[in-house]
Amino acid sequence: xxxxxxxxxxxxxxxxxxxxxxxxxxxxxxxxxxxxxxxxxxxxxxxxxxxxxxxxxxxxxxxxxxxxxxxxxxxxxxxxxxxxxxxxxxxxxxxxxxxxxxxxxxxxxxxxxxxxxxxxxxxxxxxxxxxxxxxxxxxxxxxxxxxxxxxxxxxxxxxxxxxxxxxxxxxxxxxxxxxxxxxxxxxxxxxxxxxxxxxxxxxxxxxxxxxxxxxxxxxxxxxxxxxxxxxxxxxxxxxxxxxxxxxxxxxxxxxxxxxxxxxxxxxxxxxxxxxxxxxxxxxxxxxxxxxxxxxxxxx
Length: 299
Hints:
This protein is mainly α. The chain has helices spanning 12-21, 29-36, 41-45, 64-104, 122-138, 143-152, 158-161, 167-176, 179-188, 193-211, 229-234, 243-253, 257-274, 289-297.
């Protein structure tokens, strides 16, 4: 297969010209150029996929202002999701560390979380410990890490370890546990193991997307969300790989009712602000999505 030459870089002015050549309506060239100097051309074009024809050209009526509006809404939604994602992450770290430690680490030398015999999926447990070693090397100058390196040979209690593990590795640690340990933790988090294994993975992925400014609009997010049958009955047409499904999983894991109500109110507010310019179906939001969320989480 022939390897093509990379595309030639374009100045901001040339980027505006290129968009116009492909059919994008631009009313203010100077303003468009200023926006492209702040938002990478390639990132912004990701919000316009649904407007493209089979070629590189855009459908008639596609405007630069509309594409920017979609980007703005996406940014606001990411900002709204960051705080509840952090709440869930902290709660999960605490509950996983507490219940596993009480179950497996009471007997000296209190290091049951390092012992693969205490885990069902030993291969995954090893990957978590390998990932921990990388995280420790990257953060070797942090005081509590230096303390445990000097005093305990780099080993640490689980309630310390979970502060070093990435959320993704925390999710893997839970998935590697035995059923009895998983059940204790899922019960403490108000759900069932078969859902928590999936939902932690989903929430970890959503957190990574939001933390790195990734696009949520018109995006398949994996793994597909697993929810209880009662949710499926209410959200009959819901795609489980959409942001809408991931928000349901997020709300399900939030510990406080007020946090759930606040998030739903905020999502409703920003979506109403952009409803005339952005196709909410690209997030998986149906016309009655917010009403259904309120029916479940705001009673």
